[in-house]
Amino acid sequence: MSDMDIDTLPGTGQPITVSDRAFKQIAAILEGEGEGTMLRVAVQGGGCSGFQYAFTLDDTAQDDDLVIERDGVAVLIDSVSQMYLAGSELDYAEDLIGSAFKIENPNAQASCGCGTSFSI
């Protein structure tokens, strides 16, 4: 089995993946939260490059959310954000200057230095 869970987006055929490292970190974050809490990943307008990634905790999945789940840990992505994230991988990186969730997005034409905003 691969080290990622893959769910295919409706109509695009391009998967969004979540790495083992990301699922492990999400599980650690959710340990201190109420039962049923999930990580929501969204794309919003703003940031220095036009769009920015947002990470929030949510306890309700919407009907049009993509839900990527492993071992009781769930990641939610709303339908609008799905088109900007098609083919992307959510990962978690730790290095000397800090640790953070990272999105490798093949749709991004440019991104800022910190990796939290991008343009298409």
Give a description of the structure:
The chain has 120 residues and is of the alpha+beta class. The protein has one domain: Sandwich (Hypothetical Protein Aq_1857, Chain: A), CATH 2.60.300.12. The chain has 2 helices and 10 strands, in the order ββαββββαββββ. A hairpin with a 6-residue loop joins strand 1 and strand 2. The longest helix has 11 residues. The model has no long low-confidence stretch (mean pLDDT 82).
Overall average residue pLDDT = 82
The value of Rg in angstroms is 14 Å
Structural class: alpha+beta
The number of E-state strands comes to: 10
Please, how many helices?
2
Shape: globular
Helicity range of the residues? 10-25%
Strand content bin: over 45%
From N to C, what is the helix and strand string? EEHEEEEHEEEE
Strand order of the largest sheet: 5-6-3-4-10-9
Can you tell me the CATH architecture? Sandwich
Specify the biggest β-sheet: 6 strands, mixed
End-to-end Cα distance: 32 Å
Low-confidence stretches: none
CATH class: Mainly Beta
Number of domains: 1
- CATH T-level fold name: Hypothetical Protein Aq_1857, Chain: A
CATH homologous superfamily label: HesB-like domain
> How would you describe the oligomerization state of the chains in this entry?
single chain
